[in-house]
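Researcher: I'm preparing a figure for a lab meeting and need a structural model of a single chain. I don't have an experimental structure, so a prediction will have to do for now. The sequence is pasted below. Please return the structure as tokens so I can convert it later.
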Amino acid sequence: MIVGKIIGAVLGFTVAGPFGALLGLMAGHFFDRGLGQAMGFDYQANRVQQQQLFFDTVFKVMGHLAKADGHISKEEVSQAEQLMTRLGLSAEHRQQAIELFQQGAKPEFNLQQSIAQFVEKGGRSHNLPALLLEFLFTIAMADGELHPNEKEILANVAGYMGIGSRQFEQLLAMLMAQQHFHQGAGGQQQTSANDLDKAYTALGLEKTVSDKDLKHAYRKLMSAHHPDKLIAQGVPEDMMKVATEKAQDIQVAYDLIKKSRK
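Model: Understood. Here is the structure written out token by token.
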């Protein structure tokens, strides 16, 4: 709620200039907070609810992905455990993740219904749909390969969230290219033409992009993966490590492009 802040700042500036605007802004802030409480809106509670929803959806679909080929292998269970360790989940959250994984692996699990619930309770806002796909892609690539049945599930998730097939393929190409740099292939001293091509793809750009647009795209991606912004949007703190690694991949790709343009 910002109505009170805007009105307070404008009135304050009209009466007493910049200093009055500051006082009006402060008064408006308290007005907005009081109005929010009066309307029964709890920002902190809403954020916690969003984070829990994101957590639940990720690990349910993770179980569904593992069951995509008809059974869950020991390797897939091991990969799931490694991811939980990588995320640094607390003992309580680890147990929740295991239970959610098992729910998603059951034959009766309804992927469309699960994603519909995610969208209904907050998936339409901010950048959460794309972020959810990023996390699910990271999970699917835990064994170093995106299998056709896993890609099909990710495409279904995208479709249920209103992401078209073309946009999904573009996002998938970016994520695949970013994964290339996560594995360190782009950090070699001798850079190949293929590495440079992947660097542009990782940022969702063509090689003909101007320096100005290159910097703009880079800053936009880095801003979208900033921890404070992700937490505010509903990504659990437990999952910040994956987001941080994604930002590092983007940084490597951008540095490679900048080096090639000198």
